[in-house]
Amino acid sequence: MEQTPPPIPQQSRGNWWTRNWKWFVPTGCLTMIALFAAFIALIAMIVFSAMKSSDVYKDALAKAKAEPAVIEALGSPIKDGMFVSGNTNVNGGSGEANLAIPISGPKGKGTLYVVATKSVGFWNYSSLVVEVTQTKQRIDLLHEHD
Which of 28, 34, 84, 96: CA 20 to 30 A from 53? Predict the structure, then answer.
């Protein structure tokens, strides 16, 4: 007479968490890190775009692009870089700005340094200098043209 073996008891599958925690935890952590990095990038983009939209930034960049000595050193066209450093503080018709603007052209790179104060709605530059990265040449944009 043949005897059938006793049935193997089935293990319970457990709940969703016990079955899936090994992939859910790392995925959740990576998602949180990615969301945090995206948040930081968004804040940086807002800050940089606010600086780039300021009138002192636009005016200083226009002066650098129009200066023959800067065009000679960096080539044309001159473009502004992504990461502006410094600060601007404007309150109505007054304010101050202290910026370092990366610029580049076909011949090289440089930094446009801007120090200005705003009074009665107009920017007065105390320093507006382009420093060419390769040669360390400094071009003063406030000099009187002969």
Answer: 34
